[in-house]
Amino acid sequence: MVDTSISKLSVGLRVVRPITALLAASGVVAALGLGGCGSTLSDLTTASVTDYQAANLFAPAGYSISQNTDGSLHVTAAGSPSTPSDRLTKIAMAAAADYGDQQHQRTFTATPPQTTFKCGKTKTTEKGKVINIKPIDLRVVSIDVTYGRDGIAPAARNSKETAAQLKAELASESVPPDVQAAATQEVAQRCGRT
């Protein structure tokens, strides 16, 4: 007689693992849905001044780094409408410096920052019906960065020191309400929301 208890156990585990993963995933989705307690994704991503953090699918405000075709890096910092351009410039520069430090690049140079605006959709279609949605508007600052180990260029900055200094400034500074209001108004005007 053959003992089949082990094979029954392994079959049971193969069924339980996907169910457990599905329950965990649905819990994450539920947490995201309830995280704002009545807030929309737009409220969660654009409600305050943007901090030093990487951008992602669920939180588009933050920095991102990509490779240019010439070997330099393109660093962008996207922020909520209430985040002024000078803060986004600091976020982009801090991200560039931090990346350089992680890659053991002693120095870097950056192009002057360029500010653009990304205006979100105001309508979407669900089941054939047009629905009004609150747009996710962003202010975006971008720089192109090159790294060098020796710092020969006159505009070269020390990666480690710059990263530490800018991250400390970003963590300690606060943006006054009147500056936030002016920044928000500028984004609204650029996106035709007024």
Write the layout of secondary structure elements.
Blueprint lengths: L4 H30 L6 H6 L15 E6 L5 E7 L5 H18 L4 E4 L3 E5 L4 E4 L2 E4 L5 E11 L8 E2 H14 L4 H14 L4
Antiparallel strand pairs: 1-2, 2-7, 3-7, 3-8, 4-7, 5-6
Helix pairs in contact: 3-4
Q: What's the order of the H and E elements?
A: HHEEHEEEEEEHH
Uncertain ranges: 1-46
Number of individual domains: 2
Number of DSSP E strands: 8
- Name the structural class: alpha+beta
Question: Looking at the structure, what is the overall shape?
Answer: globular
Largest sheet: 6 strands, antiparallel
Question: What is the residue-averaged pLDDT?
Answer: 81
The proportion of residues forming helix, as a percent range, comes to 40-55%
What is the gyration radius calculated from CA atoms? Answer: 23 Å
* Cα separation of the termini: 80 Å
The helix count comes to 5
Strand content: 15-25%
Question: Describe it for me?
Answer:
It is a single chain. A hairpin with a 2-residue loop joins strand 5 and strand 6. It is globular and about 60 Å long. The protein folds into 2 domains: 34 residues; 150 residues, no CATH class. Strands 1, 2, 3, 4, 7 and 8 form a 6-stranded antiparallel β-sheet that branches. Strands 5-6 form a two-stranded antiparallel ribbon. With 194 residues, it is of the alpha+beta class. The protein contains 5 helices and 8 strands; from the N terminus they run H-H-E-E-H-E-E-E-E-E-E-H-H.
